[in-house]
Amino acid sequence: MQVSENHQSYWRKNLRITSILMAIWFVVTYVVGYFARDLNFNFFGWPFSFWVGGQGALVVYVVIIWYYARYMNKLDQEHGVAEEQ
After folding, report:
1. Residues near 28 by beta carbon (within 8 Å), at least 6 away in sequence
2. Domain for residue 55, yes or no?
3. What is the mean pLDDT of the chain?
4. Residue with the larger pLDDT of the pair 15 and 43
5. Distances (CA, A) of 64 to 13, 25, 42, 46
6. Is residue 84 part of a domain?
7. How many folded domains does the chain comprise?
8. Which of 84, 76, 80, 85 is nearest to 14 (CA)?
9. 25-64: per-residue pLDDT in tens?
């Protein structure tokens, strides 16, 4: 089965954005979480380590989901595979 250049470009961009967002997820989940105790300063009146564990990571996850959906909608339209054209 031959895959067109359009499909290859679409898949390359999809893999690139997925890899970038997964790297951000990894850093927020494991790296920042691991070093959170060392982050000893106040952030909106709470210790930053508490904020990262309780709220910050969740906010980043929602932003990642929002950005991925928005990016993929634009990519689908750009490559002519959108559900609504």
Report:
1. 56, 57, 60, 61
2. yes
3. 87
4. 15
5. 16, 8, 25, 24
6. no
7. 1
8. 76
9. 999 888 887 877 777 788 778 777 777 777 888 999 999 9
Amino acid identity, position 43 = F
- Residue 42 φ then ψ, to 5°: -85, 140
Amino acid at 57: A
Domain assignment of residue 34, given as a range: 5-79
Kindly state whether residue 85 falls inside one of the protein's structural domains: no
Query: What CA–CA distance (Å, rounded) separates 3 from 44?
Result: 52
Tokens describing residue 18: 């997925």
| Amino acid occupying residue 61 | Y
pLDDT of residue 1: 60
